[in-house]
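ok so i was messing around last nite and threw this chain in just to see what happens. nothing serious, just curious
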Amino acid sequence: MGSLFQNLAVADVHQCLFRNIVSLRESEDLFDDLSDDEADQQIALSFEMNTKPSWYVSNNPIIDRPFEESTWNDAVEYPFREWAQSRFSDGTYGVWYGSDSLETTLHETVFHWTKFLDDSDFLDESVSIQRKVYTVQCDAALLDFRPHVDEHPALIHSTDYSFSHQIGSRIKREGHPGLVTISARCEGENFAIFNASVLSNPHQECYLTYRKSENEINVERRPGEIVLVISLH
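result:
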């Protein structure tokens, strides 16, 4: 791994990245099952708003905060609070992932969703999931692993993340803001961000629905409007 870092260059990145997360097309009332009384539901909602930590500070908090904080939490902050194992994290720290295009996020997230279905014995059933895509501005000097993928194919191994965990641990320990590399699922590029301060200006791009149909996944932007079909074989 040392020889890899000796030959790294830095990519000066100033672009919008695509972030693809699980989300409902229509929001649900999370407190309607606690009481039929709307006043009780409002008390529960107010308690949640007053006790949850604030991760976003708006210049116009009275007007903007409820909306901007929600967008910031969804599009940026969540992986830095809820640590999980991933390609460049062993689960002891958070990493935010974005892609260069909508299509790249589709290939990445379809792979992980179908792996979840397979592990849960749902792969032979007709199921669906709803998702939301954000664009998030990234301004950072990122370690550029793209020219080194051929020499170090373990960087984009389909399932074995042991090598990339070593890279992620070093980047986290040394305080680098992140990296850019080739996607393991398609010809696109992925960005792994270790410092939320280099991300800004999240905007909702679209809603998506993934539907499993026989041996393929149909990605719909609107009901019946298929934007991509990904084969499971």
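not much to say yet. Helices lie at 2-6, 38-51, 61-81, 102-119, 162-174.
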